[in-house]
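ligand=NAP
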Amino acid sequence: MSKGVLIVTGGSRGIGRATVLLAAARGYDVVFSYVSDEAAARSLVAAVEAAGGKAVAVKSDIGSEADTLALFAEADRHGTLVGLVNNAGVVDLPARMDEISVERLERMLRINVIGSIVAAREALKRMSTRHGGKGGAIVNLSSAAATLGSPGQYVHYAAAKGAIDVFTLGLGREVAAEGVRVNAIRPGLIDTDIHASGGIPDRVAQLRESIPMKREGTAEECANAILWLISDESSYTTASVVTVSGGR
Ligand code: NAP
């Protein structure tokens, strides 16, 4: 029997993809978004269906409120929303803050902060008992950058993820009595394409030795923590951030 509908933003690749696969295997009907790589989205739907699960791909830019409303409207067609994984996120090419443009700052904050907040707002309208919902769980994607600051590379990204930490704390407490738990995971260095999109394809190899466990993490290790926070197994955990970083 279906556990209900789970939305995963940016679900087509990386940590989102692993989360979609695990959630579908555990019985959630997954509605996930992507923004450009339609082939990756299609192949993920096929992989989920081949394993007997259900997944729906929606092209939806998390930086656009209209797209996010359309993503939730599509999810509504598939059943009751029980969870949201605010996974979609971007890095940027390395830059010092004395050379950053407002355009780059706005893109970073619109996608990584405002996008997650707007999606959480839509989830609350459906899940909070204050709005007649039956409860649910939200998991945000923070980053070890929020505690390290990423000097010389991505201070603006780190600041955006710091905002996600505070948002998780505040919203978790705001809706704790309304049946909705809000948590985050804080990945360290995870082996995905995000490092190449940030202009440093060998970033993981460069920094591997600095990780106490001496290895990068996998998208699946992040998905395991995300699904624990979505599930009732974490029923007394809210307003918390779980670090998944090999000790970094
Ligand atoms: P990734 O491999 O680059 O995948 C990003 C996913 O997000 C793709 O499915 C992409 O869709 C989608 N996406 C990008 N921009 C989007 C937008 N504007 N609207 C909707 N979807 C969008 O990234 P990842 O490494 O899995 O990272 C996932 C999350 O974990 C991010 O929030 C990231 O900041 C965080 N994180 C990652 C690491 C790490 O080491 N990998 C560490 C700490 C935190 P397309 O396929 O269509 O491009």
